[in-house]
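User: structure tokens for this one?
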Amino acid sequence: APLSVLTLVAYHTHRSLAVLSNTRLAWAASLPTTAPIAMAVANFRSSENQRRGIIVTLEDGGRISCLYLGTEPLEGATRTLSVRRQVEVDRTEETAALLRQIRSMEKNDADAADLEREVTSDLRLLTKIRMSAEVPTRELANAIGVSDPDEERACAVLILTMEAPSDGGVHDIAVTVRCDHPVAVDPPGIVVNQVATGMVSELQFRFFIVSPTTISNANAAVVASYTSSSGYPNSVIKDVRLPLPLFVIPATPEKEAACKVTFESSLPCANLNELFNDVRREKDVSHNSTGFEFPCGSLVSVLASRSSKRYRIQSNSFPALWLIMDELKSRLKAHFEHLGKSLKLSVRQDLPLREYYTLIDNHFTKRQALSECMSLLEQRAVEFRMLQKRLLLRIKEKTPTSLGYLDMLLNRS
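Assistant:
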């Protein structure tokens, strides 16, 4: 029989799954949820039977589903009456077994809830973060591209404390930290064999800026996967907010800029130097204005009005505004909550659609340029391989002949 290649294709538009045998559609079915981002075919084996051809799907939200398409439809003669009766008997027994399993699961709902509470309360993560100036590792120094690898750079040190419960320890703990470019973490993951009952384990992770680009996300996610004392696998996720001094340095604020956003406050303006006291600056700067400079060179200024209750955030770079706006909003709320006051911030100006559409156009232009470069690279690669083949044929000939400018074409391609 000819070799048949089965291909699984998931469609996002109709939430359907198609099974292709070579180029022929062999099966089609509707998906119960959204279209997956990854699929695999697996075999599950138990003490009683074996399930083959289970389709395991992974969605973008992290949900894993096991799907079963059934058997291939019969083609040919109809089955005899005895076969039909046997199928009906098997179907009745399978239905009875499923009903018993459902009743057993409903009976153990309380035990399952207790087990879930036990699993989710095994490991406790505590985080503390501080700023320092340290020398990155050799790998990170190569990624940063610094001329002096022994130079100290701004570094955020995350101290992660893991506490095991008093009723049992945890083991096989794999801790990984995820952060977005241009932030890099060293090390990206640590494996701990065991945290005994009542014991505390401390881990350290260091964050560096590896390229002078605009910051897109100031959060990092700490994921700890482990096996509980009951033998069940579990994971804990904790979000960490990276400190602002990791991304910016103090700068002189500018009075005018191209992009501006104004916050209207329900309370009088706070002292900006006290609000951003973790960013070191000179002592003689104004209390109503402050500036921040990103590694990419973008300067963001924050101005507080003395008469009206307004804050203005401005910069010549539209993408650089969001981080300072988010920091200003969170710090103002924390500042006035500490004083026992309720703060309300609002923005009455129109949405900056012109800057937004400009960014979309620039991104589209760059994607077009990248597509053209990839197409040109593919064309040059084809030419390069063809010239290599011709050169090899000329070299293998017994009688030497002229290359016919093939060497020059090879160099240019």
